[in-house]
Design a protein that fits this description.
about 70% helix, about 140 residues, mainly alpha, 5 helices, flat
């Protein structure tokens, strides 16, 4: 017969924190929402590939799809506070919008210039990341 006055000592088991790392739940929700334009752009590209036209001319649909994808990347980098890539994606989005507005000579040159500026920003970011890796290892 067990002793009624004797209580078994229970150990307090430490519970794991239910956080998602250093980021807040709001940040996680916002990052998840950046998938919406990415998926929309992917769907538009698939529709274009299967000759389903939503806009005339069909190339416009592809340009809008790329615009959505760039928007997704720019927003994701902004939320994560990766400033240079965010500006780079925004500039590519701007170049795409310039191309969408008009596909003529001077406009194409402006879009190419904006695109080159974006690629230079990406190059600077990659250089900084590679340099920081070599200094830490």
């Amino acid at each position: 017969m067990p002793n009624k006055g004797y209580k078994k000592a229970s150990r307090a088991v430490p519970r794991k924190k239910e956080t998602l790392g250093p980021s807040s739940p709001l940040k996680q929700i916002l990052l998840a929402l950046t998938l919406v334009p990415l998926i929309a752009g992917g769907v538009l590209i698939l529709l274009w590939a299967f000759d389903v036209e939503l806009w005339e001319p069909p190339d416009t649909q592809l340009t809008v799809a790329v615009l959505f994808i760039f928007l997704s990347f720019a927003a994701s980098n902004l939320i994560q506070r990766n400033w240079l890539p965010a500006v780079g994606w925004f500039l590519l989005m701007l170049a795409d919008a310039v191309l969408l507005s008009q596909l003529r000579g001077p406009t194409q040159m402006i879009a190419i210039g904006i695109g080159i500026a974006a690629l230079l920003l990406f190059a600077v970011e990659i250089f900084h990341r590679l340099r920081s890796r070599t200094h830490t290892h």
